[in-house]
């Protein structure tokens, strides 16, 4: 009897121990201990406990790809009522959460601009994961920031494709758009940048919760396209998100892009407020008034501003400008109010290396604006070429120069230097002219900002560059950036243009998340490009160093590391079905637009060589005159026979007066000084007494005053040389 009782007790103890052990393992997974095996694949549930909060999040499983999706998870409280135009308030996970449906997109115009869609209550995100938590350290996390000109787009447009099978977690997020997200008066009452603060709050949510979905909170890579890429840079550059990101991926956008920053926010807020019938002199009253305006009315006024800005210069403004409210530079904190997000100019952030030491992967399309230029804009361009006198030199080139004015050449006299680059304008070939316009706009709006960004980034951290050169063979990418001028006027050929690369990473949905049916046939070449591209992104997210598949001979492929960007060789990968590692990215074109004289003087860039030689020759003549003063017109005429020489009949100012005038560059030598005054647009040329940058290589007129001044200040001689050059 005793033996039987003992046996029963042993059995009961075993059962109790087994049940307790299972319960403890289950409890550990719920409260965040070592993860247990994933739940049944068709019934994904995430359990979590943080502090005194508990939550269950119910998701779905993709029946075809097998990954898990948790849709429409709120990360911020509704930014409505008095919370409109305010920084977002976090929403913690708690209770039962149904994450099986998309959240509404943020308020915006529809694809045709005729209706308003979405909701002001839109701070939702989606989590795509290949596996629920297990005993591993967690997968790297990509945070997807959609583009759309800070006016359009949603997280639910982007359904994950093959990238989710690369052992990554992707979180797609939403942020307030238009005036609701970016209107700024430049004051503490309306500082702006709330859309970027939304993104920052979503990243904080990922830091706090992603481990419960199988992700590694220490491996977070911000990943954006167009204005979404610009926003990703702002996130990385802000001290408020310090030590948050482990990497940055930027597709067709940069912090230096012309569309990244609203350069005239006061004009924007004046228009938005006055058109909505709100006061503009008292910021507090203006904000109170705008908080009462119906959301649809706000979006309609945003659209009217977009129409005005996109038609000022036609296709030039439609493709290059920020067409509505956008991020602003707030300036340094004063210590009295909430800390600012963007405290300096993008140029200063990069030039002074005030950015985190994290790897950067940056990419551009082969012909970013080609699809639009050969689309609906083609007729407008043809009309301008036919009817606007000297459209190239008076409108196109100055406008494009202005898009990179902080880094490029500011002298309009450089226009002559483009004569060889734009030589097709002398042929009468309309198609060739339009193609050259597309190339030039692609360079100034996308390629130059990308080059400058990776060039600066590589001085402090690792940076990598790619060019997506695969010709488009997809017909299902029309909804990703729907409504933007750069895509709504698309031409239907195979030009690899803005947004075409998105279809190789994501499956396309409508703006509200409905699946788009596409009758596109399976294409082996497309699948190959998709595999190359997603592998590049996945490997970068995992290691910070992209490992890519590179063509060797014919179809023979081998694995290779993409070399780090360097200012000497400018390496990049050309993404096609047979990708190649190449060097000197857009070498001559970037030299032209940014004023890199050494490039333009090289044998590689011979399209400007003759022009440079002419100007160098004339510059040497000026140097000879300055360093070897002469007193007679005849002597000057001998040295510079093609120049008009005028004798100076007026007394030259004394040296003390010259020293006070910043227009003069004065060099003292013993008891004598040689003083030269020059036009401001060629100051660099003369200060170096030679060719130092393309910013100074061409001037339609050079005015030189040469004087020899005794130590007493009396004028010994005075000669004025007026130099006129004409370069064909």
TrEMBL record:
Stretches assigned to the Carboxylesterase type B domain: 55-585
N-terminal signal peptide: 1-21
PROSITE patterns: CARBOXYLESTERASE_B_2 (PS00941)
Gene3D superfamilies per UniProt: alpha/beta hydrolase
Pfam families: COesterase (PF00135)
TM ranges: none
Keywords linked to the UniProt accession: Glycoprotein, Signal
InterPro entries, sorted: AB_hydrolase_fold (IPR029058), CarbesteraseB (IPR002018), Carboxylesterase_B_CS (IPR019819), Neuroligin/BSAL (IPR051093)
Listed SUPFAM superfamilies: alpha/beta-Hydrolases (SSF53474)
Family, per entry: Belongs to the type-B carboxylesterase/lipase family.
PANTHER family: NEUROLIGIN
Protein name: Carboxylesterase type B domain-containing protein
